[in-house]
Amino acid sequence: MTEHSGPLVDAVGGSEALRRLSSTFYDAVLADPLLAPVFVDFTPAHVEHVAIWLAEVFNGPTGFTDSLGGHQALLRAHLGLSITEEQRLRWMELMTAAVERELPADQLLRRRVMEYFDWGTQIARDVSAEPVGADLGDPGPTPRWGWNGLIRAEDRP
């Protein structure tokens, strides 16, 4: 039986596993005719930034907040992209394949990771409908995800 405690970032295999996941995923995205147009401004740094974001979300180091602008910056990066539900669902398909390839074969771990991606892609889709430069207000701190899903800010250590 697999132990399900501690931060998800450790369970997935740490930052290196998240880099592999991001790399595998974006290789597929950039080759996908439905999703490639959304990533027209893609740079190799994007893979690293996503890995840093995911490490923080999965209760690891706060590198995205400390160095890359935090939750506000991530949301702002989606403004004006006009992501459709069809694109979001294709994104989820490609991420599911990347998770199955790159993360440990622990079904609860994979389910929690994919629940985060489902939650996050719905937010990205919604934010993407707003024009570039829209005022998003204060989205609060970077969300954290654990073995029971979203960790409320008031429940964080």
Q: Can you put this structure into words, describing what you see?
A:
This protein has helices spanning 8-12, 14-30, 45-57, 63-67, 70-76, 85-102, 107-128; strands at residues 144-146, 149-151. β1 and β2 (149-151) form a beta hairpin. It has a two-stranded antiparallel sheet. 27% of the residues are buried. It is globular. The two termini are 27 Å apart. By secondary structure, the protein is mostly helical. The protein has seven helices and two strands; from the N terminus they run αααααααββ.
Secondary structure topology:
Layout: H1 8-12, H2 14-30, H3 45-57, H4 63-67, H5 70-76, H6 85-102, H7 107-128, E1 144-146, E2 149-151
Antiparallel strand pairs: 1-2
Helix pairs in contact: 2-3, 2-6, 6-7
How many β-strand runs?
A: 2
State the shape.
globular
Share of helical residues: 55-70%
Trace the largest sheet across and list its strands. Answer: 1-2
End-to-end separation in angstroms reads 27 Å
- The proportion of strand residues reads under 5%
Q: Helix- and strand-based class? A: mainly alpha
- Poorly predicted runs are none
Rounded mean pLDDT is: 95
SSE pattern:
HHHHHHHEE
Biggest sheet overview: 2 strands, antiparallel
Which value, in Å, is the CA radius of gyration? 15 Å
> What count of helical segments does DSSP give?
7
